Amino acid sequence: MIETVIRKRIEILTDTALAKRVTDAVDKAGITGWTVIPVSSGKGREGRWREERVMGTDKVFVLTIAAEEKAQALAEDLAPELTKYGFLLSMWDVEVIRGERF
User: Is 25 in a helix, a strand, or coil?
Assistant: First the structure.
């Protein structure tokens, strides 16, 4: 059987204009990689929204996987931004193969 290890999967929904701030925080936390995925629409407490490039409010998901301590460091670094800019950060345990890469 293939051996797996537990890591944290982290997804951060943010405005595209703030994606570099998020990816910089991922790098600062010592996490080795991230992926930015465009998001075209959604719905939240304030209702539906959709990509709006003219207004600069299009959104992206920044996705990464990290060891527990690095994930916590990232969450602590971004905590003030969550309220200030309305980021959405979620994380949960995932099993990965080749855990040393994360």
Answer: helix
Structure tokens at 38: 């465009």
Higher pLDDT, 45 or 87: 87
Q: Across residues 65-81, what is the average pLDDT?
A: 96
Helix, strand, or coil (residue 94): strand
pLDDT for the residue numbered 53? 52
- The Cβ of residue 70 has, within 10 Å, a number of other Cβ atoms equal to 20
DSSP class per residue in 29-65: TT----EEEEE-EEEETTEEEE--TTTT--EEEEEEE
Please answer whether residues 32 and 20 qualify as being in contact, where contact means their C-beta atoms are separated by less than 8 angstroms: no
pTM: 0.84
Q: What are the phi and psi torsion angles at 81 (to 5°)?
A: -75, -25
Q: What confidence score (pLDDT) does residue 39 get?
A: 87
CB atoms under 10 Å from CB of 73, counted, come to 17
